[in-house]
Amino acid sequence: MPARTSATRPVTLLVATRKGLWTLASDGARRTFRLAGPHFLGHVVHHALRDPRDAKTLLVAARTGHLGPTVFRSTDRGKTWKEATRPPAFGKSEGRVVDHTFWLTPGHESQPAVWYAGTSPQGLFRSEDGGNTWNGVDGFNRNPQRKAWCGDDKDGTPDGPKLHSVLVDPRDAAHLYIAMSSGGVFESQDAGASWTPLNRGVRADFLPQPTPEYGHDPHCVRFAADADRLYQQNHCGLYRLDRPATTWTDIGGSMPKAVGAIGLPLVAHPREPGTLWIFPMDGTDVWPRTSPGGRPAVFRSRSGGDSWTRHAKGMPRAQAWWTVKRQAMSADRSDPVGVYFGTTSGEIWASRDEGTSWRAIARHLPEIYAVEAV
Amino acid sequence: MGQTSHETATIIDVEIPSPLRSYTEGAHRVRVAVPLLAPESPPTLGGVLAALDGGYHGIRFRIIDEQGRVRPHIRIFVGQSVARDLRALVPVGQTVMIVAALSGG
Question: Which of B61, B69, B104 is nearest residue A89 as measured by Cβ atoms?
């Protein structure tokens, strides 16, 4: 068997925080990282992404404590920025108000100017000009069933209910998934014109009927390396779905009982469909949303979630009460894969060995909302 | 402040709070020409903000939501009075003052 060759390359982390945007750029070996920023100091930045299709367009979803939501754009790798001419906003006749744009997703490879945005409260928007102007996806926003699926705009998490995890099938631009906290996972085969609930097998034990058709609380849904496989970190555990099946398989039962299967983020390996990482949090009692027992750790599975291993080498062993939000964990595409997460206490942690060992590469940042490795 | 020579527009001064000065190139106060629907009628707050957005695109949506309501942590004064309705009249000579309310952490 030939020796495995290492193929690493520099990575840049886009770090979205409650007080602005920072970047961390590595050397080729990912040993040293250079922190730069802030950009948009004082803005609540929920998500920042670089377009993988042209490697130079960046979009930033932002608002401030006082001012309404907007999207900032750069077409020169972040050197200069302009505000979107028409940010995501509901129509006058819809009677709803976008509190913030929460999630950004580049469109299909064949549609280089298309982007999708998920908002709080739950709304789906699409841009066809690289994020400059946005229109609601009427098949969702104006769907007569939307309120039944999602509940009222005031329902949901303390930060507001959210539409997130917008996934575009890399083989079919019209095949989309979305997830909503709350609402559940939905699928469209016609570019968003119609939607079907995709929640069979997923618990919603906070509802009177614990296995409803919709109304679930997925926290994060990701494609595996193989887009026929989906992973879901949910309010009620962990799940895997291998299409074309429509019933999710519970993969949280193999987590240690003392840790549980609740968390916010989930990251999939870019090449191995069976490998994923999660960062559990305490979802017991009043939902402290801290590392379980104050002992932070990443859990990795190399078996599609059938078994898990705990990885905390380099992390504090006790009295560390931070956690990781749903967009604040990311993986690069190097071999071995680098895995990164940002904490609610403003630290960035990095692993160069696929999550086995960890070190802090930045501290003292504001509360981190999103980390994207680009 | 006062009506223009053709009396089709009036000039209104608008006070800009610091969170919005990125739109006005740092200006604390800007003057906007507001079209008049009728020569004898003062403009509305909505008209003033539309004119403001015409000169500083994007500023209106940061303070007024898509349903035409003043956003929760924004106050707008017409003269000495708080205005919550875009139909409020802005008499000639009055200043519109946008305030980012003291809140948050």
Answer: B61
Query: Does B61 contact A70 at a Cβ distance shorter than 8 Å?
Result: yes
Q: Is residue B56 part of a domain?
A: yes
For residue B88, the enclosing domain spans: 2-100
**Average pLDDT over every residue of A92-108:** 97
Q: For chain B, how many structural domains are there in total?
A: 1
| B24 within domain boundaries | yes
CB contact under 8 A, B62 and A85: no
Integer angstrom CA distances of residue A332 from A54, A58, A232, A267, A271: 17, 17, 20, 10, 11
pLDDT bucket at A73, cuts 50 / 70 / 90: very high
Cis, peptide link before residue A316, omega less than 30° from 0: no
Q: What is the mean pLDDT of residues A198-225?
A: 94
ipTM confidence score: 0.86
DSSP type of residue A141: H
Query: For tokens 């940061």, what's the residue?
Result: B62
Confidence of residue B39 (pLDDT cuts 50, 70, 90): confident
Whether B64 is covered by a domain: the verdict is yes
